[in-house]
Amino acid sequence: MFHFGFDDFEDQPDQTRLAELASRYEEADESTWFDSDTLEEIAAWYFEQGRLDDALTVLDRILGLQPYSSDAWMRRGIVLNNMGRHEDALAAYDEALGLNPTDVETLVNRGITLDALDRVQEAESSFAQALELDPSSDETLFNFGVTLERMDRIEEAITLFERCTEANAEHPEVWYELGYCFDRRERLEESIASYDRHLDIDPYSHDAWYNRGIVLNKAGRFSEAVDSYEMALVINDSFASAHYNKGNALANLSDLQGAISAYRRVLEIEGRDAATCYNIALAYDELGLPESAIQYFEMAIEADETYAEAWYGLGCCYDGLERFEEALTFFNRAVILNPDTADFWYAKADCAYNLGRLPEAVNAYRTVVGMTPDNGDAWMDFAETLFEAGQIEEALRAYRRSLDLKPDNAETYFSQARALFALGQSEESIRSLKIAFRLDPDQRDEFPHACPELFRDTNIRLLLGYEQ
Asked: N or C, which end of the chain is more exposed by having fewer CB within 10 Å?
C-alpha cells in the first residue's frame, strides 16, 4: 500500500517540529486557524504514529475547509482502510474519483481496498484502469501483482512484478514478492536471486533472510541455508521459525547436535511444541541415544496426544530395545490415530510377529500390502508369516506376488520352495530351489540347515546335485 501520500513535503521531515506542531494543534481551540498545508502535515504525523482516529479528525477538518479536494478525500480513504472500515474507505475514494477520475493513486488504493473485501474482479478493474492511465506506475504494477498473487495467479503476478522492477528497480517490496512467486513455481535460483536483490535494498529484513534460507534448503544448499537463517537470527534472535528451520538444515547436514541446539532454542521461545520435540527425538534416535529420544517423543505426545508420528517413533525406540509389548501398544495407538499410514501398520506387523502373535501380524501385513501393493518386501514378510501360521496356499500366492515385483530375490525363491513342498508340489519346489541357488550360491549352503527334513530325502539331494 502507498504511504499516506504527502510526497510534496520534504523527504525526511523534522520529526520534532511535527510533534510540536501536533501538540499546538491539540492545545488550540476550534476557533484557532490552521492553513490546509499545516493540517495536512499534522494528519500525516498522526497517521505515521498510528493515531488513525486523530488523523481522520484532521482530514475531516480539511474537507470542511476544502470539500472539493480530491487529494483529501483520497487520504481519508487511506486512513479508513487502515482502520478496517473498508466500505467507508470506498465511499471516500469514490468521492475523490468523482472530483478527479484519472487520479492513479486513488484508483490503486481503491483496488487495494476492494481486494481486502475479496471483491477481486472489481479490484482488477480498478488496477487495470490505473495502468491504462500510467502503464509504468510501479505502485500500480506492484499492488496489482499482489492481488493476482493472492488469487494464485502466480505467472501473471510474476509478469507484473517484473514490469515493476523495470519501472523501479529499487522498489522496496517487489523483489521480495518475486522471490516468493519464483519459489511457488519451483524456480529456485531465480527466487534466491530475487531475495538477494531485496536484501541489497533492505539488508535488515529478517523475513527475507528467512525465506531465502527456505529456498536454499529446497535447493539442497543446506550450508548456505544455515547461514541465511543465522543472518535472520542476528537481526531477530526470537524468530522461532528461523531457529526451527536452521535445525532442519543442520539435520540435513548430519550435524545432529547442532540441530538439537537449534530446536531447543525454539522450545525456549515458544514453550513445549510437539513438532519441535518430535524433531529433537528423531535426532537423538539417529545419534543412537534411545533413552533421550523416548523422553522427547513423550514430550511431543504430552504437547499433542494426537501426534501419530510421535507414538510411532516411541514404538520404534521400544522395538529397538526389544521391549515388544510396549512397542506394540504404541504402534497400535499410531494406527488408531492415522490408519492410512502404511509404515505404522508395517511396524505393528513386525512387532506382533516378534511377539509370536501370528494372526495379529497376518492381519497387519494384509493391511500393508493392501495399501502398498507394489511393495515386494511387504509381500515377502506377509508370505513368511502366512506360512508360519499354516496358511500355506495364501502364503504361496503372496510369495508369487513378491517375485512378480522382485524377480531376482533368491530368498523368496528359497522360501517359496518350502511352501511348494508343503503343498506336495515337489517338482515346482525343486525348480524354485535351483533358481534360488543360481541367484545366490549361499542359499545352497543354507538349505541343509533351513530344511533338514527335506535334505534328509536322498532323492531331493540327488535332484539338487548334492550327490553325484
From this structure: C
CA–CA distance, 352 with 293 (Å, rounded to integer): 23
The closest alpha carbon to 119, from 80, 89, 164, 83, belongs to 89
Q: Please report where in the chains the cell 517359496 appears, as a residue.
A: 416
Question: pLDDT tens digits, residue range 427-459?
Answer: 888 888 888 888 888 777 776 666 666 666 666
Q: What is the pLDDT of residue 454?
A: 67
Distance CA(77)–CA(90), nearest Å, equals 7
- Range 1-134 classified under CATH 1.25.40.10: yes
B/e letters for 49-64, b = 16+ CB within 10 Å, e = fewer, are: eeebebbbebbebbbe
pLDDT greater than 60 at residue 4: no
Identify the pLDDT of residue 468: 53
Q: Each residue of 286-337: pLDDT tens digit? A: 999 999 999 999 999 999 999 999 999 999 999 999 999 999 999 999 999 9
Cα–Cα distances (Å) from 319 to 48, 300, 388, in that order, read: 61, 19, 21
Query: Domain-by-domain residue ranges, the chain?
Result: 1-134
CA torsion angle for 410, 414, 420, 425 (degrees, to 10)? 80
DSSP state of 11: S
Report whether 65 contacts 36 (CB < 8 A).
Answer: yes
Q: At what angle do helices 70-82 and 104-116 cross, to 10 degrees?
A: 20
Of the two residues 68 and 12, the one the predictor is more confident about is 68
What does the block give as the cell for 190?
531465480
For 239-279, write each residue's pLDDT tens digit.
Answer: 999 999 999 999 999 999 999 999 999 999 999 999 999 99
> What's the distance, CA 356 to chain centroid?
41
Distance, in Å, from the CA atom of 121 to the CA atom of 430, rounded to the nearest integer, reads 74
Q: Are 284 and 293 in contact (CB under 8 A)?
A: yes
Burial of residue 235, with CB atoms counted within 10 A of its CB: 0-12 exposed, 13-18 middle, 19 or more buried: middle
> Across the chain, what does the average pLDDT equal?
91
Instruction: Name the nearest CA neighbour of 198 among 218, 178, 176.
Output: 176
Contact residues for 243 (Cβ-Cβ < 8 A; gap 6+): 229, 233, 262, 263, 265, 266, 269
Q: What share of the chain in percent tops pLDDT 70?
A: 92
pTM (2 d.p.)? 0.82
Exposed/middle/buried for residue 280 (C-beta within 10 Å: 0-12, 13-18, 19+): buried
Residue listed under C-alpha cell 488550540: 28
Taking the C-alpha atoms of residue 102 and residue 81, their distance in angstroms, rounded to an integer, is 21
